[in-house]
Task: structure prediction
Amino acid sequence: MTKAMAVYRKELRQISRDRRTLTTIIFVPAFFLLLYGYALNWDIRHVALAVQDRDVSPESRTLISAFVNSGYFDRVADVRTPAEIDRVINLNTARAALVIPEGFGRDLATGLTPQVQFIVDGDNANTATTVIGYAGNIVRGAGASLAPDAATPQPLVTVEPRIWYNPELRSTLFLVPGLIAYILMITAVISTALSIVREKESGTMEQVRMAPIDTFSFVVGKSIPYFFISLASAALIIVAAMTLFGLPMRGNWLSLLAALSLFIAGALGTGLLISTVAETQQVAFQAALLTSFLPTLMLSGFIFPISSMPNFLQLVTHIVPARYFLVALRGIVLKGTGLALLWPEMLALIIYALAMLTVAAARLAREKH
Amino acid sequence: MQRLRRLVWKEFLELRQNPRLFGLVIVAPIIQLTMLGYAATTDVRDVPVVVVDADRSPASRNLIARFDASRNFTVIDTVATIRDVDRYLQRGDAWIALAIPQGYGRGIQDGRSTALQIVADGSDSNSTTVALGYATALVGEYASLLVGPQDAAIDLRVRVWFNPELESRYFMIPGVLALLLLLVTANLAAMAIVREKELGTLEQLNVTPLRRWELIVGKLLPYGVIAFIDVLLVTAVAVLWFEVPFRGSFLLLLGTSLLYVLCTLGLGLFISTISDTQQQAMMTATFFFLTPMIYLSGFIFPIENMPRVIQYATYLIPLRYFLVIVRGIFLKGIGLDLLWPQAAALAAWGTVVLALAVARSRKRTA
Result:
């Protein structure tokens, strides 16, 4: 243990000399959370709408103002010809276009069903789906008020939605746990991976090999400083999220600490493993990018729902630790879920951390001889 | 020219000596593209549903079967009371619980209106919103089947341009091209230079008769070539494997990629002038440049949803312009007549960042 402490002290001294890296690891994550928590959301408002009103009647104006007053659409352009619609959508000035045909008001008055065209830029499928939904609702509402005779009778089955855990459906509450996982993964993996590869590059690894230190002490001593730095960074992020974004804490603090520690341990293990494979820091960085950041961003359920992925990819997500960490984190923080329900996730995190640390230690031990 | 060629050759030799790195810059983009191509769908499909059927009538089973048959939902379990729903939502095994009250079947027979209860897990706000929309639509359709067809007052004809099937892949994959170029070139270039600093060989290069610009061009050119190969590779996979439509001009894509790579390499050079160690370079690159660019460029999160101040800040991100360009070329088939402002922005950005980087590196060595 004294040997591990010696390595630990040496690493700590080295870290404290590089002030910029240290501040980057500790403070920047919290700053990012602020920036992204504030900037990112999926709530689609103010969709730029171009209008081609070929009727110019009180009825057509009612329909247009129904769009504008909904708060979902901003009328950015009035166009006359289909070619102009082409142009505004190609230029991204407008995301959607509403075309009201001639005779719209007259048809409504005589009880005919006028056809209204709604053109959507489908390049972002997600936004487009939502926008189509908005338009459908607005047109249905406007239709009911413009032609009350055609009003539909009370339907036999209705839906009463209730939303748990995040009743206002704020995207921040959903994104913050994901950001925590992402940021922790970057700091923990990069810092350990590089700290060992750097010793290889500068030749000091040879000296470490000659020194009477066993692999175990070396691994422990190398990773402990980064473990605490990452934990401090996580604590800072969570406090910032709670005070600034109203992230609730409905579960148990100890389970949260356990989940964080396990996840960080796994990430540090990944970093160590990368460092045993990579000979230069460039390779280490690319490997970290490929095995840690991108899976955490893409395959963890942070942004893209796992259940929508093809089956083989859903299988792959089982080896991404962030997947389990996110279920645990969202469960503990947002839902107040206890360990009685979350034990499979915790177990998966333990297995991942143990596997990474063991393989890394074994490879390091082999390199020594 | 002779000197420049030698330097480029040296840089390639160094890349070759490091076969892992060489493999990574070629293999990594393909793995990333495949991963991103399949994973990066924001489509919400097969939403897991848990059902509380308190009615247990043919009518309620009919409704459940409708949910299960829809490709938007998968019914994972049926439980007896609403209390049993808790564990499914808490663990995230189900996103939505559908509760059918007692007397539902009889109500339909008697023509009384019945309210179904849907409990949704709001922690994934985006998917939940979409899933709720699907559920409401499904129930609405079912309800109108029960009372027979009726006409709406206004017939809304929706036409979706460029991507009629609303495949989010078509939007994400061209974006991946832009992202990969940034990841590969900016980092590698920054680290290649800082590495020479760390090893002390930059000093040696400085005392050779190489001119400043030759040194910079020589260091950056190999990564430019790699970027060029990546563009070809990624475009091929996108079009041939993922069947993303390519409607524009390939030459225009190459030309604008060149402008963009100018920006990313310039960025790498700039990072190298403000870093002393590779660890610093990497941290600076990931935290201060790459992460903000990924999140704020419109790659995943639409810029128009961001607060005003941040929307203005996104004009500083070159990825933003290149995303408009690649998506425009791939999906919309538009040309330089519409894309020139973006191309000009890239050219300006690249020139400024290269000039800044060169100025800084000159001051340091002077």
Summary: Chain B has two domains: 2-40+167-365, 47-147. Chain B touches chain A through 119 residues (CB under 8 Å).
